[in-house]
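Hey, I'm writing a tutorial for new members on how sequence and structure tokens pair up, and I'd like a real worked example in the thread rather than a made-up one. If someone can provide the structure for the chain below, I'll link this post from the tutorial.
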Amino acid sequence: MNTAEKSYVLISPCRNEATYMRQTLDTVIAQSIRPARWVIVDDGSTDATPEILGEYANKHDWIKIVTRPDRGRRAVGSGVIEAFYAGYATINPDDYEFLCKLDLDLRLPLRYFEMLINRMEANPLIATCSGKAYIEKNGCLINERHGDETSIGASKFYRMSCFKEMGGFVREVMWDGIDCHRCRMNGWIACSWDDDPELRFVHLRPMGSSQQSIYTGRMRHGYGQYFMGTGLLYMLASAVYRIPEKPYVLGGLAILWGWLRSAIQRKPRYNDLEFRKFLRNYQLRSLLVGKKRAVEEIHRRHNIR
């Protein structure tokens, strides 16, 4: 194994993660292929996060800590990506073949990054990928139900050349949806798998939650869909799809209300008309034939087999 060819860098924005972060830190340190560099951006934590980060950085010289001032609140979307780019600014991207934006509330299998690297090396058209997120409940793992056509924002693994070519992340809520659609626009593959236990990671904080309430998180997701350019018909279908998830019914309604409120207030949308046209066409095809077939049709147009 030529480690130079498999070199990857992790960038982890975090704020007040003392409750969860040791599990992420310990499982990254134990990876079968260790990152060449791990840049952790402390985005103004007010709990024990700085002390824990200092403890690990003192033991591992490949862990670098970047500290940002406290803004007084957790900021998702634009705030997370601003913190990500504060870490990205400290590296030379050309030194690494792969890049991962990694949250600090995960527990990873020990061969997780090895598996992702092997699959990306086997298919050079994969731009971004991840495993699948699960939550633990009563000793059981419950799938968070992410689609196969996206890499998951909590662990978004990128081929560095593709990340640079597409211009990186949009600094707004739904950055982790826009990037996957843009990859497909460029003729690349965005995907996630859980066909192997080494690709199943535990998400210690439920998807779509927030420091205020899970309903706030769901409404924020609805706004993100509106910003990205999602149409009302697709949004209605998405809300129905979420009915079986806790909080039952109300969670899906909160997502729908987040979209509707944004439309009523005429909030700004992603300023790329070509992208939004591509997105709407894909979403309409998904409603008609399913996501898997809609993605396959895009791949065929780009001669991806």
